[in-house]
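Re: duplicated header lines in exported structure tokens

Our pipeline writes sequence and tokens for each protein into one text file. With two proteins the header for the second block appears twice in some exports. Here is an export where it did not happen, for reference. First protein block:
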Amino acid sequence: MRWKNLFQFIKRTLIKHNLFQTVPPSTDETILRHQRYQTRLYLFLLFTVLIILTIYVPFETKTITDTSDSISITTFNQLTDQHPFTLNCPCSQTSLEYNQFISDIKVEYHEICSSEFISSRWIDLQFIQSPVREFLINDVRYQSQMHFQLLSTLCRVAKQTINDNLQSFNRTKFITHQVLTSTNFQTETNLIIEQFKTTIAESYKWTLQLIQANPEINQFVVPLNSKIQVKRDIYGYEVFRLKPAENAKYDEHYCVFQNIPCACFYLFPNECVLQTTIPKDAFTKIIPGMIQTTFPLRSVLLSTLQCFYNETCLSYIINEINSLVSPTNFSTLNRSSLSMADSVNDPIEKLASELFIRSWHNQSSYESYFNQCHPLTCQYTYVSQFTIMDIVIAIIGVLGSLNLVLLLSVPCIIKLSYYIWDKISFCQENMIRPSAETIFIRTAFLDRLRILFNSFKKYIIELNLFPIIPPSQDIKILRRHQRLTRIYLTLLFISFLILAVYAIIAHETKTVTIESPSISKYLQLSKQYPLTLQCSCSNITVKYNQFITKIEPQYHPICSSDFVLSVKNGTGWDTIFVNDDDADFRFWIKSQLEIVLKMCSISENILNSSLSLWLQRNFITPRVISLVEFNIQIKGLIEEFKRTTVNELLLLFKLLQVTNFANQLATIRSSNWKFIINSIYNLNSCSKRELVDPQTYQNHLTALALPQKYDDENNCSCGLQSNCAQFSTLPYRVSNQSMKRILPNFLAGCSPLDSMLQSSFSCFFNETCLYLLQTSIYYVKPVPVKVLVSSSLSSSNRTVETILSQMFVEEWLENTSFDRYYEGCAPQICEYSYSLGFNGIYFITKTLAILSGLTKILRHTVSFMTLIVIKLINRKRKSQITPRSNIAVTDLDNLTLNTLQNVPITSIEVIFLLFIVIN
């Protein structure tokens, strides 16, 4: 019974419930019935929308951008795990030195660099001398001091090179705008260290190549590449003339022991070398691994340390030491110290190219890097489902805007429904009317429109949104409330305009995520959304050779011409018949072309090795870069590689030139220095044994070195500058007379290298000039060469120095592939965002949601501001006017919002109130 009564009570309450009751309440049953219909329609629509929102909103997601302050390394790692793709933590210090996070870089060197064999105890050894036996040039007792002195120098220079580069490396700046993750940091530091190792080794290898080629290019005098020939000059003085030796021996005739020739063997084409030995009366002991060639440094680099790991072999050398003046307590190198990749048969050139390094040790600290980077804030975005609070807020917001719409539209809908129903009923009752009545209806319709317009005008004028409680018919109070309504509506309209302009300008941004997009899809998205597209690489490092498919240098035609190939193969440009005329091009041509061949070979070797090493570098991109940016960056990297490689080569060449001139080293053709001796010294009286003994020259000969001079006009001395030179001459005969003509752009002078650098290959591009060259040597040995063809990129008048500054490269053939870079980067997720266009539904919903709350705020604000204005005006009136006793005065000081309705307001007060509120 109780439940039934409760149900009946609820039913009656719902039936009589009225949300659209007028103020004051109406007693007309028809009006009340219409208001109850409006209430029921309002509640039905409201609950229908509520059910739809309750089902739809929980499945919506939102993109949240959050910021974290006071970031620690633990917090950063947690955020990285949670938001790996959107985390953005700017570094407060973007430039760090490597030594701030890479420390304890230590190098373990090969045992030879810390052994006694490169110390003064071994280098200064005195061997047992025999009065009846001379040391041959490949005798270990002759070779030892020079050999191990050079080996000691190589170790010392390698260590110094590493120390210098380590200091430079530690001061190198590491630019980091964003904090790297621990994995990316470790990857980048490992790449930096590996690149440092390979770069320093490659640079040292270049230096070795140039130092090794230096005596060949400049044709310097070394003990094993020349022999002395004595002749008289124009004044009758005996002059030492250095003549090139034919091979590694002083002279073929002298290299004989026990009537057995000292045989050389060809380790490389056109290069005869000797094995190091210990000649005895009955037999000769061979020192395995040691080699003697024309140039001492090359001898060291081609040799191995095989003998010094073997006690028996080492004992052969120790037995030859003079124990009275030198120590003999030497031990072999430790074979067990060799790694799996090393061997006792490794040439010293291999060890030197690795800077005698056995292993590297280093540590990198991510914590130190993080502390130095010191991020102050981190920002990240993520997509989240709506929480219960979000769902409630979203539903309330929509219902708030819907409430305003329904409150305004439901009464209109009900009235329209009644109007339509009345019209239908009226039409059914009166299907046919006379024409006069039709005219009457039209007139009535116009009258109704006029009445409707006047009613609407009256409704606007008398509109009052501030209900009077208790109800009052006082004209002043009604007028005041109507003016408040106008102020309220004016402010509401201005707010609506501001919201409308803001909603039109501030577009909604939508973020889209795509997993593992193809290259075509990426290129399409990059064109559509170039500013917002971001694709994180799964592999942040991609080697250059993966996307640089082709980078080939095209060399100058001289490097592959018959001119240098004939010298390389020994098939032409023979100069044996030539006299000692230094200006005759035949005296210089072979050696100069050998220099060109060597420079071409060095340039090609260095460029190929550098290019191979450079292509193994890693291109680091945490995110995929656009096609345009890719082309710009790769082109810049290639140009930087060319510029850096050329600059390093030229720097080494300049350093060698300065060093050579500073040391005043003599050339084997006496092109820079000539040696004069007094005629009282007669070398012809010396035996062959005495001639091969250097002590003979130290004891009996005193020579005066005089600098050569070139260019009769300027009298250029080789003692003051190394680039003194003169044009070579071309001999020919006319009517049995010997004639000479200047050979254009082909110079000879103090230094063969400097002379060659000042020359050009213009004669080799000119068929007439080349014919004259061939004719001048044809009767000795024909040289089958062809004229060089000048391309658009190779000018025949360029000097060799200009060509060398380009490493003899005429052009580069390059090709890069963005597709391969994209495949190597392998992005798994791509995100892009774009602004949505003007959305009418979004605009209306958003505006109504804001206005629903704004209406309530404006109601209270207008009432409150009115109260303040009234009190201010009333206080001013009190100070100026004394009220009469028969005039009723309202105490405005005690005025409240509840009593405000009964206080009259003048027009000037309303205007002043509007001004205050708007400003």
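Second protein block, exported in the same file:
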Amino acid sequence: MGVDGILGSRDSKQSKANIARRRKWVKRRETWLVILGVILHAVYMLSIFDIYFKTPIVHGMDLVSPRFSAPAKRLVLLVADGLRADKFFEPDSEGNFRAPFLRSVIMNQGRWGVSHARPPTESRPGHVAIIAGFYEDPSAVTKGWKANPVEFDSVFNRSRHTFSFGSPDIVPIFCGALPHSTWDTYPHEFEDFATDASFLDEWSFDQFQSLLNRSNDDPKLKRFLEQDNLVIFLHLLGCDSNGHAHRPFSSIYLNNVKVVDHIAERVYNLLESYYKDNRTSYIFTADHGMSDKGSHGDGHPSNTDTPLVAWGAGIKHPKPISERDHSHHGLRFVDEHLHDTPIPKEWGLHGIERVDVNQADIAPLMSTLLGLPCPVNSVGNLPLGYVDMKEEEEVEAVLANTKQILNQFLRKSQIKLSHSLYFKPFTPLAQYSSMLNQIEVSLSARDYKAAMQLSENLRSLALEGLHYFQTYDWLMLMTIITLGYIGWMIFLVLHVLQAYTSLLGYISRKEEAVRQKCNSGKVQLWGCLFMGVVSLLLSLERSPPLYHAYFAMTVFLWTQILNEYQFIKALWRDLSGRKFNYIIKLLAIGVVSVFILELLVRSFTERKLYTWCFLVVGAIASIYLYNLFPWRSGIPVFVCLTCWFLSLFTLMPAEIPDNNKLVIASGAMIIVIGFAAKWLDLHADGNKYWLGICKHEMMRQPRFHLLFYLQALLVGLSSVMVFLSTSHRTEKQELHTIHQLMNWCIAGFSIILPLFSDNGLLSRLNSIFLGFAPTFLLLSIGYEAVFYGALGLVLMAWILFEHSLLYLSKVKESPWNNWEEHVFLENDVRYLQLSDVRIPLAFMVLFNVAFFGTGNFASIASFEISSVYRFITVFSPFLMAALLIFKLFVPFMLVICAFSAMTKLVQIPRLGCYFLVILFSDVMTIHFFFLVIHLLKD
């Protein structure tokens, strides 16, 4: 009798000894494949850093000493962390501007514009761009954006002395190892999101004011303060903390804008009265903005647009303009925003010239004002629109900026040349020395316009050259990683066909033995020889160790594929002998699978696709079930309604509005769902369609009779704690310790209770659903709590749909008809069929909607940090990130548990289905691999 494998029917009669031998082979192969998969994905994921996010920092460049006099003796840098440009420039509801002092500076004393940050819009990358002039080394994320994985130069390094006060997460990055610095930070405990954080800004100012006051009694400190090339840095964290805790539209955040403006005014008055020499420059800006929901990290304009105001020594005064003065061109900033973006009318600044910059441009601006060499790793362009210097000095400043960037290019070129067997130079800069000579000739002839043009052109070419060497190995790495992923997917397909279908029995044992003895050894030998040659070449080029790992993994995979030559050949013969209709069916399933996977890729930016997906699937599934059995079972209606209910959530904004009443009501909804499942579990005997999922295994006597009621009680208690914890925070009170302790206890205790649930399929899933609900509710702030219940209902609908198909198939076929031929693994697990592909595909859709149902893909910052305030309010990035990640993990856990239950219900190999899931995921991975936005080019 034939066996219905994944490629159709083939005769496969195996003895019990062969079956036992095959089972051992499958187990051994599964273990080996899991280990290989973990290593492969870990290695290939690291390739993202080598391909797209390699550190831009190189060492060994010489400083470029400026050939102009410094306009200023000292510089004050005020950074308002998390301050959005629009909230700074626009008026309040009464028509009054929130920053009256800095606005008067814009009108009468200095220059203004928008500083464009580049993702990731986090505090450390923003400050690195402002102070060091380059865009963050992404490997710093492994150290929580705090420590420096690679040391770099900064304006502070070049200063004679730096005074800095502010956050313990920012100030030590630049001053911790700087001997010529005086700095202080407040304790981490001060960063409490339950309070108004504007007092942190006042703390920074108070420390600086105290410093100046002490100088009157401290001659040594007085001498420090009277030196030139001083930098004074005040990090003002209040806006960021208040934005996270209360959103940027809140009165607390908007009032904090007034606080930082008042601090800027007091710093200005304090220094002007202290020095009385008009030789101080002032720069006010922000490291990043803040989204409407109180987060940052992505490239949305609310996160990338920050204010920039400069005034004092060496800064131009305001320049009146008219509409016809605007030029229009296609140049873009690092955040992809066009130059000459129209000024919003509500800002009221149409008559004053706006000079926008890239965030990294601020570093060369500060260096120029102080007459210091630019930081050697800076890629910023000196914004001449801010600098008030003679024409000759302006050219010299731009030339110094150009030489500093050119030195980086030359250093990177030298490093690559020394390591390459075949070096491909950046040809546009082959004659860079003659370009420098032309600039010097123009300067000697006092043709400053030509010298300026030549300097700017050379600077642009140097930046292009930096990008060229930054991506020098791009094509090679992309090719080898892509081939590796393709090899891995082919190898997975071969394993699934061999281990979980009946196709392997089609190849005789004799062919198998011949293949192993004759071909395997040769293939392995040639693979080792080829890898040896590649490793030798990589060693000669002094390539990083990971390059060896990328090549080794790819060569190994393709060697394993070639080892399966006889099986592939037999597979091809099998397909060639099939009827045309079967080939069409196979291709159709492949096309539909790819379409669904591409739909999932697109959904990473278009969440609404899931709405259409569940609307269509709900209608089709219910109609299909209705044609199979009557409506009175309730399953077709249930499947349709639950799918349509879930489709609503991807229409809702990713910026979740606060709605604690909805969270509390969701707790009641979850309890109702739990009781309905419990009732069904106890009264399903009369419904043959529901009975299978309730009594899937022989029920033992319940171990804990009151477990369900305890879990329901914890869900209700968590809803009460949501109300109590939020009400105190709304009243601007600190989170009570007793509330915090209760929240942690409820969350921790509820998670372990499903371990003691009954072994029935529905009762176990219901216990898991109720077990994670309290934690999810305590981490919820709005409609995502309802989403949790909706997702649970859809997962149950999925299980019912598959169980209905299973029930009908058993009714049509004799259950004992050649049953042993359908089984080759333990616990009555059957062969995979071609139609089973729908199960891992459905899992992929549900797994993704578990992520996108309440957020978007930008980053972990896309999810509400206020979600963690019922557990912790004092700033702790790792603990807060862990709680957010756990919140994301809970819906995933539900989907994974339902998927595992599904494989048990329909009796298919669970690990085989997981391998298919990995296969589909890697198809998406390759697509994403080519979609990563390259942000290294300026």
